[in-house]
Specification:
With 218 residues, this protein is mostly helical. Helices cover 68% and strands 8% of the residues. The chain has a domain of 124 residues. It is rod-shaped and about 110 Å long.
Length: 218
C-alpha cells in the first residue's frame, strides 16, 4: 500500500515539475518574442524617422538660397529680407539707408553752398548772402569771413564723406544680413550631430531603458 502511495506521489511530483518547467519555458519564449517584436518596432520607427528626416532635410536645404538672398539685397536693398520672409526688417533697412542718404545730400548741399560763396569772394564779388543783414540791406563787412567759409567747407566735406561711408556700410550690412539670415533659416541638425530619444531593452531583465543619446559623427 505504501509503495502504491509513494508511486502516486512520485508521479504527481514529476507532473508538477514538468508543468512548472513547461510554463517557465513558455513564459520565457513569450517574453523573448515580445521583446524581439518591440525591438523590431522601435528599430523600424527609428529607421522611418531617419528616412523622413533625410527627406525633409533634402527638401528644405537649398545651398543657393543664401546666394540668392544676398544677390536680391544687392540688387534692391530689402529684397533679400523679403525673400527670407523677414518682412519686419524691410522698414529698418530703408530707414537706415535712407537716413544715410539724407545726411549725405544735406552735407553736400551745405558744402556746395559755402564753396560757391567762397569762389565768388575770390573772384571779387561782394553780393553773397552774408553781405546782407536780416532785412536785406547791404553790409560793408560780411557776417561770415573768408576764413569761416574755408572752415565751413572742411566741416561739411568731412561730414559728407562720413555720411557716404556710413551709407555704403549700411548697404553692405543689408546684404550680409540677408545672406546670414538665409543660412540660419535653413539650419538643420542632421545625423552628424543629433540628439535623439534612446529606447532599448535591457538584456538582463528585458525591461525597456529610456533616455536621450547624443550622436557625433565625423
Amino acid at each position: 500500500m505504501i509503495n502504491k502511495y509513494g508511486a502516486a506521489l512520485l508521479l504527481v511530483w514529476i507532473s508538477l515539475t514538468s508543468y512548472s518547467q513547461s510554463t517557465s519555458t513558455v513564459k520565457a519564449s513569450i517574453d523573448s518574442t515580445l521583446v524581439s517584436k518591440e525591438t523590431n518596432i522601435i528599430d523600424t520607427l527609428t529607421r522611418r524617422e531617419r528616412r523622413l528626416m533625410r527627406a525633409r532635410t533634402s527638401r528644405e536645404i537649398d545651398p543657393l538660397s543664401p546666394s540668392k538672398a544676398a544677390f536680391y539685397s544687392a540688387l534692391v536693398p530689402g529684397l533679400g529680407q523679403v525673400y527670407n520672409k523677414r518682412y519686419w526688417k524691410v522698414p529698418i533697412v530703408y530707414g537706415a539707408i535712407g537716413s544715410g542718404i539724407y545726411f549725405y545730400d544735406w552735407n553736400k548741399k551745405e558744402y556746395d553752398r559755402y564753396r560757391g560763396i567762397y569762389k565768388r569772394r575770390l573772384a571779387g564779388f561782394t553780393d553773397d548772402e552774408f553781405y546782407l543783414d536780416s532785412e536785406g540791406n547791404q553790409l560793408t563787412t560780411p557776417r561770415v569771413s573768408d576764413q569761416s567759409l574755408r572752415e565751413a567747407q572742411k566741416f561739411y566735406q568731412r561730414n559728407k564723406d562720413l555720411s557716404l561711408l556710413v551709407t555704403v556700410g549700411l548697404y553692405v550690412l543689408n546684404i550680409i544680413d540677408a545672406n546670414v539670415d538665409a543660412h540660419l533659416k535653413q539650419y538643420n541638425v542632421n545625423d552628424n550631430l543629433s540628439l535623439q530619444p534612446y529606447i532599448r531593452p535591457n538584456d538582463l531583465d528585458y525591461r525597456m531603458n529610456y533616455g536621450l543619446s547624443l550622436n557625433l559623427n565625423f
